[in-house]
Amino acid sequence: MSIEAHRATPVTIETKVQASVLAKPIAVVLASGARENSPPATNARIRGKRLTPKRLAPGGILFGPVVLLAVWELGSRTGFISPRLLAAPSAAVVTGFQLVVDGALVDHFLASAKRAYLALAIGVVVGVILALISGLSRIGEASIDGTVQIKRAIPTVALIPFGILWLGIGDLMKIAIISLSVLIPIYVNVHAALRSIDIRYVEIARAVGLTRLEFVRRIAIPGAMPGFFLGLRLAVTTCWASLIVLEQINTTDGIGYLINRARDYGQTDVILVGLAVYGILGLVSDLLVRLCERKALSYRKALGS
Amino acid sequence: MNIAMSVTQFEPSVGRSTVRLRNLTRLFSGRAVLDDINLDIGAGEFVALIGKSGSGKTSLLRALADLDEDVEGHGVVEVPHNRSVLFQDSRLLPWENLLENVTLGLRVPDARQRGLRALADVGLSGRESAWPIALSGGEQQRVALARSLVRQPALLLADEPFGALDALTRLRMHELLFRLVEIHRPTVLLVTHDIDEALKLADRVLVMDAGHIIVDRGVGLRHPRRATDAEFELRRKELLHALGVVEQV
Fold first, then answer.
1. Rounded to an integer, what distance in angstroms lies between the CA atom of residue A176 and that of residue A160?
2. Which segments within chain B are labelled E, that is strand?
3. What CATH code is carried by the domain that includes residue A200?
4. What is the mean pLDDT of the segment spanning A271-279?
5. B145 contact residues in A (CB cutoff 8 A)
6. A208 and B87: CB-CB below 8 Å?
7. A54-63, B9-18, B81-90: which has the highest mean pLDDT?
8. Is residue B43 part of a domain?
9. Does A12 reside within a domain?
10. ipTM of the assembly?
11. What's the first-to-final CA gap in chain A, in angstroms?
């Protein structure tokens, strides 16, 4: 089909050019010939070989996950996958529904959410403040940037021993450690955005005589917003990541506790419910942040559409 | 050789030059891009500065605008405190609407009214809450012009402000600039590579070459000027000659 189109079109072009040469004076032919020919030529090229993939249909992103679930369910039903190692998706859905109905899942979820989002709030605020100090002053960058980069290289869970020694085994330690992990993506992205502010805007600020404070408020901070939202998208999932480990320590609630206890009892369906909570939460958080981003950065909307 | 340049800022008064340069030298990595420049520009004068690329014309404008930090050089630069810069690109802040862009850094109680009036002056009334991205290149440059003039500058520094526009838009912008300059009467230094643009708008033309001002002469043509007038063509030939261009045909 595509080969045919490819072959057919040049012929069409030639005929058209010839026709117009015969029909019109030379000067007009040159101009109109170009105009008449270009649409079919362009069409042929697009039909012949498309260089970029076509836009995905709405919901098309779910194709992979749905196929995976179907294969998995089939494997479980035929006894190919042992429920001792991995429960069927349908079994996990039933268990999840039961856990929601008896309120256990909601309680665990709320306990985890309280820790995660409290830590998220603290981490975001501290991360932004550090990035602003480091991004807008030399002494700030000298003192903060290296320190944060070193922290970035240390796995969050490796801080747990010190966390316990200094802050005990309660929620304070858990929230402190999660805050530290949330701070990193926020800091890194806001700092990078501040450092790459367009010099042209700095010059216009200088030309119209902005004060330093006005510069920060009207150019540096709005300019760093895309970086902030990128960091926030990473942070909303980071804040849950360490919980699974942290909720093994001195707790009787939380999704992490639920999963760990289920492992001890061999309840693979409950483990799946816990994982599903993480997955759904990550998806919803990301959508929420992107919604806020679209609202806050609406001045760019003409770019994407 | 890291001598700080003395930049004096004063409020312009009658009988004084708006711009005064004495022995201005600027070096970039050891090379003099401005070499011992002396220049006076009178109040209300419209001066065009032309020259080949690399001749130092933008460096001179940036020195007058005090845009560069930590530059090597010496000399005296006297410019009014109240000055505006118009760049080749509009440099509108994409996250601020047109009115906010126009009144950026404007510290007067009636900033809003003045901003609206400035937008109306450039033919964009009613668009004050639009985002810059919704505008065409020519419209964006008109907003930049409004931003320059809303602060009623004593000195307007324009660095090839129409260089990125199409020919038709550029002609319209010439008329607009000329009309607004007639009204606001700032002193203007227009850097351009377009000789016709310089001859059409300016009272006086400077030609730069290798960091020196090699030509400095009045245009002395009455407005409106047409590029086809005999005297206009004569002036163009002289300037082309000064630029080392031999006209073909």
1. 10
2. 6-10, 17-28, 31-42, 46-51, 72-80, 83-86, 155-159, 187-191, 204-209, 212-218
3. 1.10.3720.10
4. 92
5. none
6. no
7. B81-90
8. no
9. yes
10. 0.86
11. 31
| Per-residue confidence band for A136, with pLDDT thresholds at 50, 70 and 90 | very high
The pLDDT confidence band at residue A118, using thresholds 50, 70 and 90, is very high
Does the residue B107 lie in any domain? yes
Total number of domains in chain A: 2
Q: Is A285 in the same domain as A154? A: yes
Same domain, A43 and A140: no
Percent of chain A with pLDDT over 90: 65
Q: Which residues of B touch A138 (CB under 8 A)?
A: none
* Å between B131 CA and nearest CA of chain A: 6
| Residues of chain B contacting A217 with CB distance shorter than 8 Å | none
Q: What is the pTM of this model?
A: 0.77
Confidence of residue B22 (pLDDT cuts 50, 70, 90): very high
Predicted confidence at residue A299, as pLDDT, reads 86
Average pLDDT taken over every residue of chain A: 84
Q: Choosing among B68, B93, B98, B129, which should be mutated to test the A contact, i.e. which has the most A CBs within 10 A?
A: B93
Classify residue B104: in a domain, yes or no.
Answer: yes
Which candidate in A208, A212, A298 is best for mutational testing of the B interface (most B CBs within 10 A)? A208
Helix (H, G, I), strand (E, B) or coil at B47: strand
Query: Closest residue of B to A204, CA-based?
Result: B91
A226 contacts in chain B (CB < 8 Å): none
Range of the domain at B132: 88-152
In a shared domain, residues A23 and A152: no
Query: What total of structural domains would you count in chain B?
Result: 1
Residues A103 and A175 occupy one common structural domain: yes
Q: Do B95 and A200 touch (CB under 8 A)?
A: no
Q: With beta carbons under 8 A apart, name residues in chain A contacting B147.
A: 208
Four-residue CA torsion sign, A254, A259, A264, A265: positive
Sheet with B212-218: strands ordered across: B83-86, B155-159, B187-191, B46-51, B204-209, B212-218
Nearest alpha-carbon partner for B211 in B9, B17, B68, B30 = B30
Q: Is residue A92 located within the same domain as residue A36? A: no
Token pair listed for B184: 């606001």
DSSP alpha helices (H): ranges in B39-165? 57-65, 98-102, 111-121, 137-149
Domain span holding position A291: 87-304
Quick check: is A166 in a domain? yes
Of A210, A299, A302, the CB nearest to B105: A210
Q: Which residues from chain A sit within 8 angstroms of residue B65, using beta carbons?
A: 207
Residue B19 has pLDDT above 90, yes or no: yes
Whether residue A113 sits in one domain with residue A31: no
Of A204, A219, A302, the CB nearest to B134: A302
Nearest chain B alpha carbon to A224: B95
Q: Which residue of B has its CA nearest to A303?
A: B133
Task: Tell me if A208 and B84 make a contact (CB, 8 A cut-off).
Answer: yes
Do residues A177 and A294 share a domain? yes
List the one residue out of B246, B180, B16, B213 whose CA is nearest residue B201.
B180
B17 or A66: which leads in pLDDT: A66
Judge whether B208 lies within some domain.
Answer: no
Residue A73 belongs to some domain of the structure: no
The pair of three-digit structure tokens given for residue A115, joined into one six-digit string: 């820790």
Indicate whether A191 pLDDT > 70.
yes
